[in-house]
Amino acid sequence: MKKLALGTLMIAGLLVACGGGDSDDVTPLPDANTNNPDASSGACNPLSPPGQQGCLTGQKCTWVTVQDTPDRLGRVACVADGTVALGGACTVGAAGETTGFDDCQAGLFCINAECRDICGLQGQANGTCETGYNCTRYADTFANGDDDPAYGVCNPGCNPITQIRTNSNPVAGCGAGMGCYMLVSQTESIAVCAGAGDDMVNTDIVGTVYANSCVPGAQPRRKDPGSQTSECGGLCAMVDVYQGMNTQHEGGMDSPTPGGGLPDPADNCQTRWGAPPPADTTAGESCRYWWAREPFDGVGTYSNSLGWCFEHNTFRYDPTGGQNPTDPFPRCTTLTTGDVVQPIGDPPHNDAIYFWCHAVPAMLQNASNGVKKWHARHEPKLDRLVDNWRYRN
Predict the structure, then answer these.
(1) By the 8 A CB rule, do 147 and 169 touch?
(2) Burial letters for 72-109: b for 16+ Cβ neighbours within 10 Å, e otherwise?
(3) Which residues of 122-156 are buried (b: 16+ CB within 10 A; e: fewer)?
(4) Strand, helix or coil at 187?
(5) How many Cβ atoms from other residues are within 10 Å of residue 326's Cβ?
(6) pLDDT (tens digit, 0 to 9) for every residue of the chain, 393 residues total?
(7) Residue 72, Cα to own-chain centre: how many angstroms?
(8) What is the largest CA-CA distance in the chain?
(9) How many Cα neighbours within 13 Å face the side chain of 222?
(10) Is the four-CA dihedral 355, 357, 273, 220 of positive or negative sign?
(11) Global pTM value
(12) Could you write out the DSSP letters of every residue in 206-270?
């Protein structure tokens, strides 16, 4: 089990107290203190060692799903401890005050029908995951609705292009029914193995959009500038592309070899995903750097190492540098590293960077930072997963 002393993973979130859930239709669970007169003041803590979580002997502190409809609601509470160890096959009871929890041991949580470590999203003690795993948010888990959870679940890290698990020996993918997906918060991007979605590329996503709504190798993206509809778009292997440089890789780089017996890498918007070629003046797609999707300043792990298929002939930008997008995004192959295309910056900026065709330096230039943030606000929020083994929208 993980528990690497003091965790330092810092992702903004609100502490979910034992007693959350604000629907008048739900009979509230007792507080941890009511269950256990000997517990110290405050909520029970699922990150504390078994027997020290603020619950009675034989209990654990975990997330309990109180109702499934019309909305899924739950809360952190003390319930009977489970018997399934880390990595074991687990089940979750039907929603209800006395049934809506799993049969994992204290400190673990059932995700994708497997007991995984619970982790902290606010730098709590005992909150970090073991090496090769990342702390990830799940919908309707340790928080209700769009509330930010204080706790998450440890999932294996992976490569979103090759779909291979991090530090796996021998080399292995995420597993049957699983895929590698990108998660983006206000502070970082991470890639984790999660239950695979089944929406294909160019398919509209019905219902709530999650980071793993699409088939492996694809991620949700905004369909067009005139609606809030999201669809699935492919990931791609990115390289700097501008006028006279790597023009043959405008749609992404083709991998010279398959992924060692695993599915072929999702490396090119055209050859892998069947996207219209970049020269298509109506719906052409090109591979653009992932940093365009990240709302935070600076450069993260995947900012300059991952690409996403972007419908550049569908979307618009404001050539005056304002908030009135009128002109289609230019192709990367038409851009230079100078300041030629409007808006001309002060100080001058790099056009290839401005339009996400070039790796961005550690300190973002003002102009590129502005267009990045504007577009990132309009892309689907990819900060949490859904347990596709349990819920299907």
Answers:
(1) no
(2) bbbbbbbbebbebeeebebebeebebeebbbbbbbbbb
(3) bebebbbbeeebbbbbbbbbbbbeeebbbbbbbbb
(4) coil
(5) 10
(6) 554 433 332 223 322 333 333 333 333 344 433 333 333 334 899 999 999 999 999 999 999 999 999 999 999 999 999 999 999 999 999 999 999 999 999 999 999 999 999 999 999 999 999 999 999 999 999 999 989 999 999 999 999 999 999 988 888 999 999 999 999 998 899 999 999 999 999 999 999 999 999 999 999 999 988 888 999 999 999 999 999 999 999 999 986 555 444 555 567 999 999 999 999 999 999 999 999 998 887 889 999 999 999 999 998 888 887 778 888 899 999 999 998 988 776 667 789 998 999 998 876 555 556 566 666 677 888 999 999 877 654
(7) 20
(8) 72
(9) 17
(10) negative
(11) 0.85
(12) PSS--TTSBPTTEEEEE--TT---EEEEEEE-----BTTBSGGGTT-PPPSS-BTTBPPP---TT
Query: Tokens standing for 149?
Result: 């959870």
